[in-house]
């Protein structure tokens, strides 16, 4: 009896998250086709070598994800050379860092071609091959937490990741009858060369030294550390396995708690979001901590503890009307009123909202 070994194609796997995913899937027993751009050849061949050392077959195919023909050819070559094709990881992506008002037409065209078109070509090429082989398949796309909640200074990048989430949902619906599942991973702050670029560009813009921007973002992670590719690869390993067979159309955050931190801060100070009227009570220290985080996440410049000290800030949170997510504090439902130059009169503030 011959057993066919499963094969995955991972785009942009010369480095970073793609490389981490390729290695993890290889550990799961997959043969791997690594794709990347020509200038990444040496690094891609290093990924191939590390996969082979795990005892499975791997090949490198030079392919630009933004080029439809190259993506279709890469899938064909994967099947021809490795003898099976089961899983498509549309990982390749680029970032763009600048305020929205400074974005040019070229910036938009460049990022859309890779982050949006590239994912579409990958979905199409994989779906066509699964259909031709008359078999089920799995397609897994790179989204981001910026595709769940847009990041300042990363407006067009966030837009492409919102698009990936939409594409994942649509492809999941359209391809479900063919037993093809489509999901996405939404990494948080992963310490790859992409974050070196973000840190450098944001640092340049705000005039802060190298390493400071990424440190601030990491300080905002509930689990207290930046992410590594292995964190993402662990989810992709699950999404690639039969254990995820009943999951489709989902974009799943792997972020160590970045998105939930603000909400959790409120929970931590005892804000009851379930019923009205509710009571808001916090110590000065707790409120200061939350405000520092809040202002840091909302503004480009950080605010000092001393400047908060001379002001009394009143936070009013209202319940979201969304029945789907009754506990989530939406941005629009959080108001911060600053009453400047009022000294703290007591160490605790209690507020009742009707
Ligand atoms: N690093 C993070 O914090 C983070 C967070 C959320 C989402 N993501 C997403 O995860 C994916 C991987 O990110 P990363 O951090 O590993 O990035 P990275 O820049 O470290 O690596 C990306 C790889 O993709 C390749 N690539 C770029 N354009 C390509 C193209 N047109 N065709 C083929 N390959 C191409 C690059 O050469 C590189 O090898 C991206 O889609 C990114 O948007 C990253
Ligand atoms: C780069 C990226 O998608 C997040 C914001 O870290």
Quick rundown:
The protein is of the alpha/beta class. The chain has helices at residues 16-27, 41-52, 68-82, 105-133, 155-175, 193-206, 212-219, 229-240, 261-268, 284-298, 305-309; strands at 7-11, 31-36, 58-62, 87-90, 137-142, 180-187, 251-254, 278-283, 312-317, 334-339, 348-353.
Assigned CATH architecture of the largest domain: 3-Layer(aba) Sandwich
Helical segment count: 11
Number of domains: 2
Assigned CATH superfamily of the largest domain: NAD(P)-binding Rossmann-like Domain
What structural category characterises the helix and strand content?
Answer: alpha/beta
**Low-pLDDT sequence parts:** 261-281, 309-354
Described by strand count, sense and barrel closure, the largest sheet is:
7 strands, parallel
Q: Which class of the largest domain in CATH terms?
A: Alpha Beta
Whole-number mean pLDDT: 82
Spell out which ligands are present: nicotinamide-adenine-dinucleotide, S,3-hydroxybutan-2-one
Order of helices and strands: EHEHEHEHEHEHHHEHEHHEEE
Measure the end-to-end span.
71 Å
What are the SSEs and their pairings?
Layout: E1 7-11, H1 16-27, E2 31-36, H2 41-52, E3 58-62, H3 68-82, E4 87-90, H4 105-133, E5 137-142, H5 155-175, E6 180-187, H6 193-206, H7 212-219, H8 229-240, E7 251-254, H9 261-268, E8 278-283, H10 284-298, H11 305-309, E9 312-317, E10 334-339, E11 348-353
Parallel strand pairs: 1-2, 1-4, 2-3, 4-5, 5-6, 6-7
Antiparallel strand pairs: 8-11, 9-10
Helix pairs in contact: 1-2, 1-8, 3-4, 4-5
S,3-hydroxybutan-2-one is lined by residues 95, 144-146, 151, 188-189, 194, 198.
């Amino acid at each position: 009896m011959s057993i066919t070994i499963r094969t995955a194609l991972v785009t942009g796997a010369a480095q970073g998250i793609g490389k981490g995913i390729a290695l993890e899937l290889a550990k799961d027993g997959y043969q791997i086709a690594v794709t990347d751009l020509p200038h990444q050849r040496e690094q891609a061949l290093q990924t191939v070598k590390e996969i082979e050392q795990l005892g499975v077959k791997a090949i490198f195919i030079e392919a630009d994800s933004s080029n439809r023909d190259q993506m279709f050819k890469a899938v064909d070559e994967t099947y021809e050379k490795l003898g099976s094709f089961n899983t498509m990881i549309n990982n390749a992506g680029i970032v763009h860092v600048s305020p929205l008002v400074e974005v040019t037409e070229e910036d938009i065209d460049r990022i859309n071609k890779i982050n949006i078109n590239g994912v579409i070509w990958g979905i199409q090429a994989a779906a066509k091959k699964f259909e031709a082989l008359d078999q089920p398949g799995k397609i897994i796309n790179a989204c981001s937490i910026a595709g769940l909640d847009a990041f300042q200074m990363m407006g067009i990048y966030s837009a492409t990741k919102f698009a990936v989430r939409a594409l994942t949902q649509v492809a999941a619906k359209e391809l479900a009858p063919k037993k093809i599942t489509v999901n996405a991973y939404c990494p948080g702050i992963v310490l790859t060369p992409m974050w070196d670029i973000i840190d450098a560009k944001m640092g340049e813009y705000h005039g802060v030294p190298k390493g400071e921007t990424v440190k601030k973002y990491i300080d905002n992670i509930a689990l207290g550390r930046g992410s590594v590719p292995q964190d993402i690869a662990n989810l992709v390993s699950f999404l690639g396995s039969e254990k995820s067979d009943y999951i489709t159309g989902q974009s799943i955050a792997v972020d160590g708690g970045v998105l939930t931190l603000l909400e959790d801060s409120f929970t931590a100070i005892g804000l009851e979001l379930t019923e009205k009227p509710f009571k808001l009570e916090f110590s000065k220290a707790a409120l200061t901590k939350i405000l520092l985080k809040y202002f840091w996440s909302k503004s480009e410049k950080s605010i000092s503890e001393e400047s908060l000290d001379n002001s009394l800030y009143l936070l009013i949170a209202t319940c979201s009307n969304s029945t789907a997510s009754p506990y989530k504090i939406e941005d629009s439902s959080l108001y911060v009123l600053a009453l400047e130059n009022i000294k703290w009169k007591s160490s605790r503030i209690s507020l009742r909202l009707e």
